[in-house]
Amino acid sequence: MNHVVFWGTRGSLPVSLTHRDIREKITAALLAANGKAFKTRAQLDEFVDQLPFAINGTFGGSSSCVEIVGDGPAHFICDMGSGARALGQAKIAKYGVPNPQTYHIFISHLHWDHLMGFPYFAPMYYPGNRIVVHGCHPHLEESIRHQMQAPNFPVDYAQAGARIEFDLMTPGKAHYISGINVTPKLQHHAGDSYGYRFESLDRTVVYSTDSEHKLDNPTEYDAFVRFFAKADLVIFDAMYSLAEAVSVKADWGHSSNVVGVELCQAAAAKRLALFHHEPMHDDKQLSRLIAETRRLEQITRGSRQPLDIISAYDGLSVAL
Amino acid sequence: MNLPTREQAGVLIVSVSGRIDHIASEEFTRALEPLLAGCVKGKAALLLDFSAVDYISSAGLRVLMMASRRAKAQQGTFAIAALQPLVQEVFAISRFNLIVPCYASVDAACKVVGA
Ligand SMILES: [Zn+2]
Ligand SMILES: [Zn+2]
């Protein structure tokens, strides 16, 4: 496995920037540029690059969709949130239509924000493509068909040109798929969710979203430490603050940055990516979250190796 | 887990010390239990002196939330005081400062929660 591309990182519901958000970014950038002169485009780019991410960028608003770029020709995708639309377009642009591809798609669970991009995933309409949908929910195929049934969607599932197969996986068991060992793990979430551990010869990536951690259950804690063990990257549901996750939003099925840091530290993972961002949070709040999470790692590190912490955003590509 | 207590200004002060990690938090729950049983309406406020605590994990924080919730249900008063700067940061990052009453010092807390 070479790198991971985040196509959708927002939790629960896609969001977009408002005109007010854009205006605020422009105002802040102009304020920072006040009195400066840029003689060349390169100078301007350099200036823009050093602005804070909340001003020169955005975390984006598409719902869960993550691509793991492997060593072979097959494509690996985690979840089909609204980010799957852009991913599908990029694949068509890169490979063209008469160039059949194989897509392995791993579904964490059947909630809408993780499936809604499927009907907009262009490769599904082109004959020759092969799509294998992997998951642990017995109703996986039914759910995907259902969202494309009238009156939910104008194009019926039967119109798909690609060959679509379903693979019901067994949690806790490693499945060898196109050169990668994939192990699903049951997680605490309404209707159950599953995390996936992807292992190639020399790299490990864990995708663990929509997963609540019950802190009074040491057995479960240990099981997650093993699931994350020595991973190069752990993609983690950090939707709530710890205080929310254990009080007002207990049993809502999500986790926090604090628990992500603790589990990754205990598991000796190398990098943690905060994921499934709260739709209520704007770029400033998410920037504060990443800064605080890095600080938490620093003050609780002790004698361990540092844990690298990033916050996923739509369009981010991370080398493994 | 040993939790020495003393009284000051009508407040029951409990000295907590060391690291409250995932393993210690189970013990912490058990040690707090009898103290919380007495944290009811009309009885002394229960104040945890955190000055000797140098680490607290999410599981430890959850124990504090459960304690605070129980005290509230019994109409008792429960608070924490004198967090070390780094522990204070953990409270702020986890937003626990918003759900559990925290005071800068034992004296400051006694002035507010004392009878
Ligand atoms: Zn979700
Ligand atoms: Zn969900």
User: What do we call the CATH homologous superfamily of the largest domain in chain A?
Assistant: Ribonuclease Z/Hydroxyacylglutathione hydrolase-like
Largest interface: A-B, 21 and 23 residues
Instruction: Tell me which CATH architecture of chain B applies here.
Output: 2-Layer Sandwich
- What is the share of helical residues of chain A? 25-40%
Pairing-aware structural class of the strands and helices of chain B? alpha/beta
- Please report the total strand number of chain B as a whole number: 5
What small molecules are bound in this structure?
Answer: zinc ion
- The coarse silhouette of chain B is globular
CATH topology of the largest domain in chain A: Metallo-beta-lactamase, Chain A
Query: How many structural domains does the protein architecture of chain B include?
Result: 1
The main sheet of chain A comes to: 7 strands, mixed
Distance between the termini of chain B: 28 Å
Task: Name the average pLDDT of chain B.
Answer: 96
Uncertain spans of chain B: none
Contiguous helical run count of chain A? 9
The assembly state of the depicted protein chains is heterodimer
Task: Output the CATH homologous superfamily of chain B.
Answer: STAS domain
Q: What is this entry, summarized?
A:
Chain A is α/β, with parallel strands linked by helices and 320 residues long. Chain A is 29% helix and 22% strand. Chain B has one domain (5-110): STAS domain (Transcription Regulator spoIIAA, 2-Layer Sandwich).
Write the layout of secondary structure elements.
The complex is a heterodimer of chains A (320) and B (115).
Chain A: E1 3-8, H1 19-33, H2 41-49, H3 53-56, E2 65-69, E3 75-78, H4 84-95, E4 102-106, E5 130-135, H5 140-146, E6 163-168, E7 175-177, E8 180-187, E9 193-199, E10 204-208, H6 218-228, E11 233-237, H7 242-246, H8 257-267, E12 271-275, H9 283-300, E13 308-311, E14 317-319
Parallel strand pairs in A: 3-4, 4-5, 5-6, 10-11, 11-12, 12-13
Antiparallel strand pairs in A: 1-2, 1-14, 2-3, 7-8, 8-9, 9-10
Helix pairs in contact in A: 6-8, 8-9
Chain B: E1 5-8, E2 11-20, H1 22-37, E3 45-56, H2 58-73, E4 78-81, H3 85-94, E5 102-103, H4 106-113
Parallel strand pairs in B: 2-3, 3-4, 4-5
Antiparallel strand pairs in B: 1-2
The complex binds zinc ion (ZN) (2 copies).
